[in-house]
User: What shape does this take?
Amino acid sequence: MSGFKTKVMAAVMAMAFSTPALAGELARREVRQQARIAQGVQSGGLTAREAVRLERREVRVENKIARDRVDGGGLTAREVVRDNRMLNRSSRAIYRQKHDAQHR
Assistant: This one.
């Protein structure tokens, strides 16, 4: 399991360092959420399966935001609201998974 944690941490760090191409609060939130997942894996609050599921969700959100940025040359106010909503849902999912007692 330790090897898996190392791989997850490496993936999270790679994603965190590739994110600066995205500007603004959305990018900062993405980085913070990646760090929360990594911290959950390291502390044992997240199982390997939970971490993989949350990482996949984060990638989908990041890809959607990136597509929104490319379409039309930037984010519209509506896209920012929608993207923030997606990040809020993702953040709640991270919290729930880190604090569930199911795997303990």
